[in-house]
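Review form for a predicted model. The reviewer records the input and the model, then writes brief findings.
Reviewer: anonymous (R2)
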Amino acid sequence: MSRFVDSLRLTLRTVVTDRYAVVLMVGAVVLYSFFYPAAYRHQVASNLPIVVVDHDQSATSRELLRRVDALHTVRIVDQPASIDQARQVMEAGKAEGILLIPANLERDILRGSNGYLVLMGNGAYLGRASWVLGGVADALTAFAREAAVSQAAFMGAPQAPPITLVQRPLFNTQEGYGSAIVPGVAELIVHQTLLMGIGVLLGARRLALGRRLRFDLPTLAGMAVGFGAIGLLGLFYYAGFTAWVQDYPRGGNPLGQLLGGSLFIATTVAFGLFIGSFFATRERAFQVVVACSIPLFFLANLSWPAVTSPPALVALAHLLPTTPGINLMVRLNQMDASLSEVSHELWTLVALLALYGGLAIWRLGARRSN
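Model under review:
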């Protein structure tokens, strides 16, 4: 027991006194909590430029343009005379979309016929094109409902629409980039900084001793608990304080987060001890872990469904703590999932903890010879 306590104290003291470790495991976590979300502070795309080709030049088309220009998503930057000129503006990168108002739009509406509008987006940037097409389409739909009332005034008594669609996003209430991306990346940041910190300390100690590291089980357990305590503080710093400051969805199933987060960090520590046992210098930890950050995020399948990924990559991803860990914490914190709904991720982490814990003992255990 004394060896365990001494190892725990030594690990925590080393993290605080080693400038590389404290910058990675404490400073980087705090820095990224403000630096990374800054890129997504606006949450949604806004003021995306579009051009309008108005062949109707009527009161109806001018009212339609006022509605479109009042949108937060887009702004009208030019009104060329022809569709060819509008295409040149978009191909030059000065506009993200084109709205074409055909001639006789007002006449067709007043006569009871269908009025047609053409909306085109720049497919080179799918995210921007989606916001342009979606935002302008909503404005056109609202305008079309009012145009239907005007038609009815000429053709008969106006009738209110029988159904009004009200859309409410369930979790990402602002439908923003930040709320969708940052909570998942936060778990990856904690995972990677913890791995680098473990690798730096193990690499530095191995370089100083000049041989492969060996620890008895109480000492190794004390190290693991020390690293785990630091990682758990970082994880809940993101899930609680950072999510509150940045106003991201948060607060779902706190007891589940405590269990799931503890499993995620414990598995990360075991994985870090195993991987770190191969680092002969502290610099190797930076080179390996930083290079793997982006692939780890994509392999977590948070960006797109796992069914769209090759089966081999999905199977490989389940051998990494980040895949179940990121999905687990996002669903528990942002989506208020129950433990039964994340049981697959929980059991996956248990299996990975046993796997990498055994491998770490095999690599670093005192019974291993030089």
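Findings: The two ends are 26 Å apart (CA to CA).
Further findings: The mean pLDDT is 80.
Recommendation: see findings above.
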